[in-house]
Amino acid sequence: MEGTKKRVFASSISPTMVFLFLGFAILLILPMASAAKVTVGGKMGWTTNFNYTTWAKGKHFYNDY
Fold first, then answer.
1. Is residue 46 included in any domain, yes or no?
2. Does a structural domain hold residue 61?
3. Percent of the chain, pLDDT > 90?
4. Would you say residue 19 lies in a domain?
5. Per-residue pLDDT tens for 16-41?
6. Domain that holds residue 15
7. What does the buried/exposed string (b/e) look like for 37-58 if buried means 16 or more CB atoms within 10 Å of the residue's CB?
8. How far apart are CA 4 and CA 2, in angstroms?
9. What angle do CA 33, 36, 38 make, to 5 degrees?
10. The whole model's pTM is what?
């Protein structure tokens, strides 16, 4: 009779539920990312004879490499 036992737990989990669980788990693991377009130098753009040190004083730049 041991060969006729059902696996109740394994049969009660549908493939859809497994897919949804894995999808949510992946979303929680992935890091958040955001981007912003910044024109270096402000309205003048990239040009010569411009003090970029002064321009960059009030800005924060993050590099994740």
1. yes
2. no
3. 8
4. yes
5. 999 999 999 888 888 777 777 877 77
6. 2-56
7. eeeeeeeeeeeeeeeeeeeeee
8. 5
9. 150
10. 0.33
